[in-house]
Amino acid sequence: MTEPTLFPFGHATADRWSDAAGSVVQQMGPCRSEHRLGFVYVTAPFSEELENISIFLRRTTGVETWVGTVGLGVCATGQEYFQTPAIVAMAVPIDHDGFRLFGGVREDAEDVGKSNAEWIARAGMPLVVTHGDPGNRLLPALIEDLAEETNGFLVGGLDIGMGPARQLAGKMEQDGLSGVMLSPNAVQVATGLTQGCTPIGPVRRITVAEDNVLIEIDERPALDVFVEDIGKDMAEDLNKVAGRIYAGLPIEGSDVGDYTVRNLIGIDPENDMIAIGEHVEAGDTVLFCRRDQDSAVEDMKRMLGDLKRRANGAPIRGGLYFTCLARGANQFGPDSAELNMIVDELGSFPLVGFFGNGEISHDRLYSYTGVLTLFL
Length: 376
What we know:
Elements: E1 9-13, H1 17-28, E2 35-43, H2 50-61, E3 65-71, E4 73-76, E5 79-82, E6 86-93, E7 99-105, H3 110-115, H4 117-123, E8 127-132, H5 139-150, E9 153-158, E10 167-169, E11 172-173, E12 177-182, E13 189-194, E14 197-199, E15 204-210, E16 213-217, E17 220-221, H6 222-230, H7 232-235, E18 245-250, E19 259-262, E20 264-268, E21 273-276, E22 285-291, H8 293-311, E23 318-324, H9 329-332, H10 337-346, E24 351-356, E25 359-362, E26 364-366, E27 370-375
Parallel strand pairs: 2-3, 8-9, 23-24
Antiparallel strand pairs: 1-6, 2-6, 3-10, 4-5, 4-24, 7-12, 8-12, 9-25, 10-11, 13-27, 14-22, 15-16, 15-22, 16-17, 16-21, 18-19, 18-22, 20-21, 23-27, 25-26
Helix pairs in contact: 1-2, 8-10
């Protein structure tokens, strides 16, 4: 008899959710009693059936607890599903004390910390797999609060943010953050983040700002500094910078030059000002960056190489990948190129994830990034 896969997983597309889910279960094969937790992600056509899908998976696999959400696309080992009804699922071997569910994080995460205080103390620094609703305006602060309350390292992404509940954490959740905390005593992991942009200028200081409008940078008109950094060719037609140039906000204290990317949402040539998709204040730092395929591929290779070194020859048993809906075929090309980069560098192993409205890593909300977690 064939030995069951340690991290059973499957992925499928079909017009009916029951057909896709049936194919996923068949691919997963037999699950053992130690498979107590599963991750499931579906695309928008199956969003209203997420609860039914989780019930089906629980009854057919015996995996009692499922966590997941809805993405614009979903992904599995070497495979991306966009603009098609699809399901991906993976079971994790873990004991009952190795994980804790959480949900209902809409205004603060205090209840998560209080109700799990003893478990968190034993766990040390848990991995917190987190799904968020982009419709909650408090989300960036909630992510920071959740990281502080759990003493955890967050990974995850935002759902499609349309209609009723789109998250699953043992039961259906909505309007905030939900997910599962995994104890490092139960699972060993390595996680990495890859940016989809490359800096094109130095880190600069915002000297005058109002809400999300950059008025002066380095005590000069903001637009003058912007034009200097992007170069004369692109500056000749500022209408062409949309979708190519972004504002990067460096993360204070980062030892790897990390930054969050925000859209440019307006340029005012008459007053030499720039509006970005984030509140800023005088004293904050900013850099301008370029988003293109070469930049994304280069940084993806960097992340994968770093994770390979950190694995240090240990077998990769499974993985979760949360990536931006603007990546995938939009940035890496057709034929599941982004997911196949992972296979090419790290080998073929069970992996599931989704393409979302934003990505979560450590204690920050990102855009245009990929967050990869490996179970070792």
